[in-house]
Design brief:
With 355 residues, the protein is of the alpha/beta class. It is built from 13 helices and eight strands. Its EC number is 4.98.1.1.
Length: 355
């Protein structure tokens, strides 16, 4: 087996502790060609689609990838900015702010699918001297399709790497007090400017119901997050509702569905609604277009009068503070031993080292 090697090692290089934040990913451009590349990588992941592999390969390559890239490209065009994909630019801003807060560490960001890849970032971080690595996926609620898939990407990289760093991995923070506080403050700040609705809807990305019945804790963690946010806001159970969005295919997914909820709320007497997505650490297609546009239409067309989307936590200071403290908790006990690098390099050269 040919391992990933590096020709940039220097015995005089200082060792570092690294923090790699990750998110789902984004196409490189809002074009059918780039969407096809992105969707093929994403939907080929067995963590994302748990289906007999050969049959799914046929469906994916001969049906989905022939139709969906063009449709998805049109949707991405509506959210694309001059800087590029919102998810990419926001995640980069999060990384830059975290680096400022975690100044003693080397902070980078990567995408599970697309660019910059997890493997490319691990490589560049190791080449810069990172020997201890904390992976922080920006998924507050654990889910096999997101969190575990990120671990898979790291593990796959490590199987191809001759020298691997020490590793720590954050698999959820759905009930961390500072995360809950950041969510509550985001909602409160929005309501101070826009008023309070008849109902606050907390919408999370959906997964097939069978993932839950097979043991995935995602559904439970979403509901705990909602309950804690409601407590922080002083809401009773009639003032908020948890829903699940972004389903596709014919099988049953986690319910209640966000889109069906929006269509039924006006009939139930709800005339104003605000939607916040606690599971999304950064605004992206699923929040900007699916919630703020598509689901708004469902609500208004069904008789609703006022619909507001509350932006995700993004790179807001309270969110960065929460992520900083989460990272610090998992970094506890890790230290880099201070050494005389010049002496180390001299000793290594006496033993025949090239650098």
């Amino acid at each position: 087996m040919k391992y990933i090697n590096s020709d940039k090692f220097d015995h005089q290089q200082d060792e570092k502790i690294g923090v790699l934040i990750t998110n789902l990913g984004t196409p490189d451009a809002p074009t059918p060609k780039k969407l096809k590349t992105y969707l093929k990588e994403f939907l080929s992941d067995p963590r994302v689609v748990e289906f007999p592999r050969f049959l799914w390969w046929m469906i994916l390559n001969f049906v989905i990838l022939q139709i969906r890239p063009k449709r998805s490209a049109q949707a991405y065009e509506t959210v694309w900015t001059e800087e590029g994909s919102p998810l990419l630019t926001i995640t980069q801003a999060q990384q830059e702010k975290l680096q400022a807060q975690l100044s003693d560490y080397h902070v980078e960001f990567a995408m599970r699918y697309g660019n910059p890849s997890v493997s490319s970032k691990i490589q560049s971080m190791m080449e810069s001297g990172v020997r201890k690595l904390l992976i922080l996926p920006l998924y507050p609620q654990y889910c096999a399709a997101t969190t575990a898939s990120t671990f898979d990407a790291v593990a796959k990289d490590f199987t191809q790497r001759r020298w691997i760093p020490e590793l720590r991995f954050v698999n959820h923070y759905h009930d961390h007090p500072l995360y809950i506080q950041a969510c509550a403050e985001q909602i409160q700040q929005f309501q101070q400017k826009n008023g309070e609705p008849d109902l606050l809807v907390l919408s999370y990305h959906g997964i097939p119901k069978r993932y839950l019945t097979n043991g995935d804790p995602y559904f439970c963690e979403c509901h705990k997050t909602s309950r804690l946010i409601a407590q922080a806001l002083g809401l009773n159970e009639n003032q908020y509702k948890t829903t699940f969005q972004s389903r596709f295919g014919r099988e049953e997914w986690l319910q209640p569905y966000t889109d069906e909820t929006m269509k039924s709320l006006p009939t139930d007497g709800v005339k104003s609604v605000q939607v916040f997505c606690p599971g999304f650490s950064a605004d992206c297609l699923e929040t900007i277009e699916e919630i703020a546009v598509e689901n708004k239409h469902y609500f208004i067309d069904s008789g609703g009068e006022k619909f507001d989307y509350i932006p995700a936590l993004n790179a807001e200071d309270n969110h960065i503070h929460a992520l900083t403290e989460i990272a610090k908790t998992h970094l506890e006990g890790w230290q880099i031993q201070k050494e005389d690098r010049a002496h180390q390099k001299s000793a290594a050269k006496k033993l025949g080292a090239a650098s």
